[in-house]
Amino acid sequence: MSEYIGIVIFFILAGAVAGALVLLASVLGSKKPSPVKSEPFECGKVPFALPVGRLAIKFYLTAILFILFDVELVFLYPWAVVYRSLGAWGLAEMAIFLGILMAGFFYAWDNGALDWE
Amino acid sequence: MTDLILLLPELVLVGMALALILLARHVQRARSAAIGVILAALAAIYSGWAFSGKGPTMGFGGTIAGDGYAQFFHVLFAAILALAALLSVRHLDAERVPPAEYYALLLLASTGMMLAASAVDLLILYLGLELMTLCSYILVGITRDKSISNEAAIKYFLLASFASALLLYGITLVYGVTGATEFAAIAAAVSEPSLGRHPLLLVGVALVAVGLAFKIAAVPFHAWAPDAYQGASAPVAAFLAAGSKAAGLATLGRVCLAAFAPEQRIWSDILVGLAILSMAVGSLLALSQSNMKRLLAYSSIAHAGYALLGLIPRTPEGASATMTYAFIYAFMTLGAFGVVIGLGERGEDLAGYHGLAATSPRTAALMFLFLLSLTGIPPTAGFAAKFGVILSAVRAGYVGLAVLAVLCSVVSAFFYLRVAVLMYMTEPQGSAPAHFPVAVSAALAVAAFVTIIGGIFPGILAGWTVPP
After folding, report:
1. Is B11 on the interface with A (CB under 8 A)?
2. CB neighbours of B204 closer than 8 A, spacing ≥ 6?
3. What is the ipTM of this complex?
4. Which of A62, A70, B188, B279 is the most exposed place for a label (fewest CB within 10 A)?
């Protein structure tokens, strides 16, 4: 269990710092409540509203393609860290992996996923 | 790099899937893609055959096994893939499904099944099953302009992803208790008395069993099957009934015998419960079906129960009986679905079988053969397979279970043979297609051949069914 003690300390410290900040803000800060401020989110968007209009499906495609490259990076990064110990076969394996990934990208491209109009 | 020999069949299928994806826009007709898929399936069978024993017994850090068990299921899945590809050809052109995408998904789903069957590590097993299920979701919903298909895909996706989460949760709990995901290490840890009695291990084992029971559509985890089979186009339903069930049984068999064999308390009880419920509920609910695909879905649920009988004793002989059952069931259900596909719109509804024998006697005779086999009447392969699993249950002392299995078979005879009665003893209604498409006929010929040969020579698979 002793190897987890660092995580426990981390959680306690994080909780203490966050709690202290909230506490200090509520004790020391000035209070001028307004309806906008008491909404769950204050990022400029109306939090509760019926969806108006349609969202173009094109955004969905872009997001999917983003995930493709995201996954690529997830594997490329740790591979790069241990690259020297993998040798030539490691390079070939990564080339095959990228080739398979790019086949999917090519499929999307070929079928017009990148045409915005 | 010699490890790759173990995955040669999978690599062949993936290679063909990639080629289809790259050429997707240039593949207009289903026929050319189907030919490619069938060649890939034959190459996969051959490569599994030619290189058996040439590679290492274990590969990829002890996560993939190259044993006879994996080889048997490689052959079975490649055969299912080839038959499903044959059954799909005409159907795809009629329903305006993009052929390249469809066949690529079929190939990748089969790859997942093969991977799951050769996995000796819970994570690789999960990876294989998930690859299979992800492709199946899309295949069920691939006829996008049909609302029943969309509904089936959504239902299947929601239930199956929930079951996958349960399976994964079970794997984490088993890992938490035993500290391993390899089957051999799990078995070693479970046989230690201190770990074997851990309460979390019980929960983990139960959750893994639930996740795998979902894949074979065993009651009470069967609710997805009738809706998915009915909503999917018939070749996809056939592929799911044959492939998904065989993959589930392959993984259950290996997990049962290789990983949790020393686990004495709960594993057998769960399997007994699943088998009893599946046989009884599947047979009883099939009685009231009027849609042929739903009827075959409930029949597949009942057959999941029969197949489980072989795994309950946890003996190598029992596992062999279940492997035989998965093999035979795949061919007879593909055959029955093949007739449904060949008859087109008419074949989907039970009323379409009125007087079929008068207008197209050969079709009716084929359907009768597959129905006899599904009931388990000699001299068909279905009888040999059912005899094998019931015998293994009796030998292990589960006589009550064997009696229940026979009783359920009697109940199931009612709804299978009702179709036969409709075909042979009622007045003809409308016209049936005079000739089936060549591809469908070829698939039906193979299925009928296996169904007859397996019945006449019941021991023909004995040399192949190597338990894990």
Report:
1. no
2. B170, B171, B172, B173, B174, B176, B177
3. 0.81
4. A70
